[in-house]
Design goal:
This protein is mainly alpha-helical. It contains 20 helices and 6 strands.
Length: 498
């Protein structure tokens, strides 16, 4: 009886309450900004655009995602290095035993698609904001640059990807099909072109690191040479816009590209921004000094090291890019962990380690020593790369002499003796197997180069990659689509061979 009375009272109270307020369950969280409240000011637009930029570093686990996903995906399978077998997923990557569940490429895929999602949100809502029209157009250019950048990265490493150009609104939007690579390249060309037309040549100092006209043109050229059928003329035109802009130059010292001394400097076309700050306990740093310095996760392969021992100045000494690329047993080798009186042999034996981005951070604390947390930016595209790609374009169009002149500019910066007369085919081989790896090792270029040239397996075999027998031609040039996406989206098809 008592229970029945209680239930009756509760039902009566519920009836009275709902009679007074039909929407009593529709409660607004006062601490959360709604979409209608958000798109009001230029600051709102800037925050939304920042969310799209934020995915560039793959901010998984704070500072760790940059190395464990981006660095692995873009560098671990080449002929340039050896790596310590620390984790099964890393071994899968460099030994060509990749599984669908490997987290390194899964998060690469996830964060770059998250970046695409953020750019589409921005592009679909920016017109709601009343702000300066010039700044609005520039921000739209940035969003298009980022959308193209993320798509280009994904098609480069996964090949068969969905092309996402709108925010999902209905059920079927959440189950996209894959586009052809050429369709992705076409869209990237359009987005990079739009970006180049809208972006400034440079930003004021407080906005350093944002995409520029030069960055858009550099990636426009890159897209043209990544296409199934490269357009050397269009690529050369885009690279020429960067070279002739007057905004870029080679740094006098090769090593200053990697030690934090010239961040967003004259050689930087586009780079990832890191700091040693921890706003709201979120790390903005990266870990390359720990991974390749103090922890020694890897170093140059025997082939690459031997090749670089020929990178010399006129007096027979090693070039600046030798000493700026790796640590090795040499009197002129320096490492930030050396104590007074140390030499390489007394500290590291006969090991060889990468040096790019490995330097002592300005932060030193009891819980996070300097080698574990670095604020140095990492370069995505620098002027030397643009020059070498322009040389490749010129050579492919029969302008070999002009191409050699450009290559010698890059070599001269590091004191390397100039190359003389070569035929078109000889210069092509030199660019592929010497100049680009010598200048750009471990900058995320080599694997994409080998794939676009169609020479992965023979190059790995010639250069004695220890796992080349595992390489399956027509399969291992690309990574498998993440299994979680295949399970959630029946319209996706796994890449061949996986």
């Amino acid at each position: 009886m008592k229970i029945n009375k209680v239930i009756t009272v509760l039902l009566l109270a519920l009836f009275v309450f709902t009679g007074c307020e039909e929407n009593f369950l529709d409660v607004t969280d006062p601490n959360r900004v709604t979409e209608d409240q958000f798109w009001q000011t230029e600051d709102d637009a800037f925050k939304a655009l920042t969310a799209a930029y934020a995915q560039l570093t793959i901010p998984l686990w704070g500072r760790w995602g940059h190395y464990e996903c981006k660095i692995l995906v873009e560098n671990y399978r080449t002929d340039l290095g050896y790596f310590m077998p620390d984790y099964d997923e890393w071994v899968e990557m460099y030994s060509f035993r990749m599984s669908e569940e490997n987290y390194t490429k899964d998060y690469y895929w996830y964060y770059y698609y998250q970046g695409i999602y953020q750019t589409n949100i921005f592009l679909e809502n920016i017109d709601r904001v009343e702000m300066d029209n010039t700044m609005k157009a520039q921000m739209v250019g940035e969003a298009k640059f980022l959308r193209a950048f993320y798509h280009l990265k994904l098609v480069t490493y996964f090949k068969n990807i969905p092309l996402i150009l709108a925010v999902p609104t209905v059920a079927e939007d959440f189950y996209p099909t894959q586009a052809t690579p050429d369709a992705v390249y076409t869209q990237c060309i359009q987005d990079f072109t739009d970006a180049a037309n809208a972006l400034p040549t440079q930003w004021e100092s407080r906005y350093k690191g944002r995409a520029t006209k030069g960055a858009a043109n550099a990636y426009l050229g890159l897209t043209h040479i990544y296409k199934t059928n490269p357009d050397w003329s269009a690529a050369s035109s885009a690279f020429g816009s960067v070279i002739n802009s007057g905004q870029y130059d080679l740094l006098p010292e090769f090593w200053d590209n990697f030690n934090g001394m010239s961040e967003n400097g004259p050689e930087s076309v586009f780079e990832l921004q890191f700091t040693v700050n921890r706003p709201n306990n979120v790390s903005e740093s990266q870990t390359l000094p720990a991974q390749f310095g103090a922890w020694g996760q890897g170093g140059p392969s025997d082939w690459y090291f031997d090749m670089m021992m020929n990178d010399k100045k006129a007096d027979g000494s090693y070039s600046d890019r030798v000493y700026g690329t790796f640590f090795f047993d040499d009197p002129n080798t320096t490492a930030f962990w050396f104590e007074e009186g140390d030499t390489w042999g007394s500290t590291e034996g006969d090991r060889k380690l990468w040096k790019k981005w490995v330097y002592k951070s300005e932060v030193e604390t009891a819980n996070e020593p300097s080698w574990d947390r670095s604020g140095v930016n990492t370069v995505e595209m620098r002027f030397a790369d643009v020059l070498l790609m322009q040389a490749e374009c010129l050579n492919e169009q029969g302008q070999t002499t002009q191409a050699i002149d450009i290559i010698n500019l890059v070599r001269a910066r590091s004191g390397v003796t100039p190359i003389g007369t070569l035929s078109q085919s000889e210069l092509r081989n030199h660019i592929r197997n010497y100049e680009r790896p010598a200048e750009l090792a471990f900058e995320g270029k080599r694997w994409a180069d080998l794939v676009r040239w169609g020479v992965v397996e023979p190059t790995l075999r010639t250069h004695n990659n220890p796992y080349v027998d595992n390489f399956d031609v027509g399969v291992d040039e690309y990574l498998p689509i993440p299994s979680i996406d295949l399970n959630n989206n029946p319209n996706l098809v796994q890449n061949p061979g996986f």
